[in-house]
Write a structure and sequence with these properties.
1 helix; disordered N terminus; disordered C terminus; lipopolysaccharide transport protein A fold; twelve-stranded antiparallel β-sheet; mainly beta
Length: 171
């Protein structure tokens, strides 16, 4: 009886320790100067696969760090063998990233730590105020604050007249 209680307590302590370590890691390397700030990730379920060095968040995932919030249906985090560095983060299903006045919507977003980049696919749309960019793929290089959009279509709105560049009235 005491052995079963001890094993259960060990599992709980291990999971708690892992979660505390995991939640202290930088999310999407959002702010290179403030990487020590905590990340808060909520979801309906969390599955940790220590052998594969993965954490899988499923259902109504919300990840928040500083002024950046990421929403998705699922999020898979791949980390190194030590459990201290994130290699990749894959967000899928209704991906929405909010930062200040900017919003990016996509079906999928993949962060690659080694490149310090996020690739958005699945009809990605980036919006800043009333301006919008659509494309097949949007790659955002975080440390360079640079984006590359494949097959881009840009919609620029004149803030004072409410008209787009082609002169059509906007909604």
């Amino acid at each position: 009886m005491n052995i079963k209680k001890y094993k259960g307590l060990t599992v709980i302590v291990f999971i708690f320790s892992f979660l505390m370590l995991f939640l202290s890691l930088p999310l999407f390397a959002i702010d290179n100067q403030n990487t020590q700030k905590p990340i808060i990730i909520t979801s309906e379920t969390l599955t940790i696969n220590k052998k594969e060095n993965q954490a899988f968040f499923k259902g109504s995932v919300v990840a928040k760090k500083d002024n950046v919030t990421i929403f998705s249906d699922n999020m898979l985090v791949n980390y190194d063998e030590t459990g201290t560095k994130i290699k990749t983060i894959e967000a899928s299903g209704n991906v929405k990233v909010l930062k200040d006045t900017r919003t990016i919507l996509a079906d999928r977003a993949v962060y690659i730590a080694e490149e310090d980049s996020i690739t958005f696919t699945g009809e990605p749309v980036a919006m800043d105020g009333k301006n919008m960019i659509k494309g097949d793929k949007i790659i955002y290089y975080i440390s360079e604050d640079r984006s590359v959009v494949s097959n881009s279509k840009v919609f620029l709105k004149n803030e004072s007249t409410g008209k787009d560049v082609s002169g059509e009235k906007s909604d």
